[in-house]
Amino acid sequence: MSRVLMRGNEAIAEAAIRAGLKCYFSYPITPQGELVEYMARELPKRGGVFLQAESEVAAINMVYGAAAAGVRTMTSSSSPGNSLKQEGISYLAGARLPAVIVNVMRGGPGLGNIAPAQGDYFQATKGGGHGDYRLIVLAPSTVPEAAQLVMLAFDLSDRYRVPAMILTDGMLGQMMEPVELPPPVDEATIPEKPWALTGAKGRPPNVVRSFELEPRKLKEMNLVLQETYREIEENEVRWEEVETEDAEILLVAHGTVGRIVKTVVRQARKEGIKAGLLRPISLWPFPYGPLRRLAERVPTVLTVELSAGQMWEDVRLAVEGRAKTPFFGELGGVVPTPREILSEVKKHVPA
Amino acid sequence: MLKGLVVIDRERCKGCGLCIESCPFGVLGFSGEYNSSGYNVATMVQPEKCTGCAICAQGCPDVAIEVYRLQPQGAKEAA
Amino acid sequence: MSQLSTQIPEGYVKVFSRPRSLSDAKYTYCPGCHHGIIGRLIAEAIDELGIQERAVGVAPVGCAVFLFRFYNVDFVQAAHGRACAVATGLKRASPNLIVFTYQGDGDLAAIGTAETVHAANRGENFTVIFVNNQIYGMTGGEMAPTTLPGQRTVTCPEGRDVKLTGHPLKVSEMLAQLDGPVYITRQAVYDARHIQMAKKAILKAFRNQAEGKGFSLVEIVADCPTNFQMSPVEANRWVVEKALQYFPLGDLKVKED
Fold first, then answer.
1. pLDDT, tens digit, for every residue of B39-77?
2. CB contact under 8 A, C225 and B69
3. What is the DSSP letter of C243?
4. Has the ipTM of the complex gone over 0.95?
5. Which residue, A289, A131, A305, is CA-closest to A211?
6. Which of A284, A298, B79, C49 could serve as a FRET partner for A9 with CA atoms 20 to 30 Å apart?
7. Rg (alpha carbons) of chain B, rounded to whole number
8. Which segments of B1-79 are extended strands (E)?
9. Domains in chain B: boundaries
10. Shortest CA distance from B67: residue in chain C
11. Distance CA B9, CA C90 (A)
12. Given 1.10.240.10, 3.20.20.30, 3.40.50.970, 2.60.40.1180, which CATH number is that of A3-199+222-235?
């Protein structure tokens, strides 16, 4: 397969299979239905297990079991379903199990709607479930990038033993684009998992758990997690910059909004406004450093997102008063047009 | 010679008394001795009555009992 | 125990000792608790079937939360109620493993009802050991889905009122109605004869899995002396006189091929 036209949901599924996915568990929900359907059709043919679970709660716990067995495993859902998975995600994080979780976000809170939204940013990047943990969170802005990031998510998750999330939205899930799919990974290159449950043959029993009653020991387990998170913050920050060299206003946007803002930057430049874009690709670890460096010289940093200002909090943490930090957001599944964003930009630059 | 013999792991025994209750021959009783967890440990009070039937061990919740049986000459040890 | 064995005079042979799959760790259960017996029967079954090197246990939340300490086999700790989903993932990922869950009534029959029913209905090829002691032990003696009518617990201090909180949930009867499971049985461990019967049931449930037959569940009607506020001997008697009236013993489903 070389260059093919694929929907975002399908590209995510195909990339996961090429990453060596062995077990996929999920519960149907819009707008990620095509992902489940693709898996149901393709994964069994290619030696993997597809199982439609009775709920998202069951699906994430099946992922937990398969991850404990040492195979590459994944689940996908959309916002309400992802909320149900938070318990299991906390257990995955606590037990240091690698897994990939896809959240194709939709409007919320509650049942909300099925239109694109970015209101699960806090849930994805700040923990979501109980306890002190993080997920590696990657936010693609195009279908080809989604495919790349899925493969990266499996690698990072295995390397650090931290669950990884692909955070995207219904727009990208449904969008069709030509994709150059990466070749399937050589499974011999997937790291060994000596901690996996393969039967206690010729070794002491392995135990996969997040449970530790003794506070000092649980503290030690937590410190291992925290050290891992510091290492990830050191090595795995990813972002894209567009026209930032001479920018007088810097826009910050992630995922599909980042893509819309690219158009805005081009149009602004045509009109003589020196706009630039910083698009975080890893939402956790968030690109605090790169953004802070830009905020040293750009007077205005405008955050644009499909939420009431969730990523905006991280932007302000990064900028720490070095620049003005206005916000432009949309809610409820409403997606702003480039023109609307551009007129917002104009409010913040001298005429 | 005794027909049967039970060995109770003092530190595992929690003094629940189920073995004492279950023994059909009244072999077992409380020793009045307490282990490091403070439990009154069971012991053989009438060892001569033990047949080695292992009913006590079957019902010991803490798997604290080993049972031995006097073997006629020439018989092999059970696995 | 080996140091004790050295005191044994000549001519005696060992006829009962700890199974090899049981570790040296002391149980964390209360005195007289049936969990310990059931745990030993599982270890004996693992030994007798020679599956220690491919067995994986799924530990629950509840009094058996430390289950992983008690065996010389691989273990995973599941979230409360999710053991059957975790076991599904494990077994589907590695069909050669012998996977078993060990769950109490709160875990399996309240918070984990959906996971249990659907795993059973799919006929997942693993083994479930379900300990029904009619109460929540670890959290301090609250009402369970299996608490008997009129039985006092800290959350039904006047006794379970079926008009307010329903009747004891008969999990095995429910699951036996499904086409998925191959073996559903209810056993008890209050005396040596029933312990032997429970052992046979557990062996069969593991053997079914080893032969690829599908979902087996062994329910064991057990006691909880501490939270029944009874002596171990009284609690044992409670099982016979009270609990078995509501939860009669025997096979509820045996699908022969």
1. 999 999 999 999 999 999 999 999 999 999 998 765 555
2. no
3. I
4. yes
5. A131
6. A284
7. 13
8. 4-8, 28-34, 40-44, 65-70
9. 4-69
10. C16
11. 36
12. 3.40.50.970
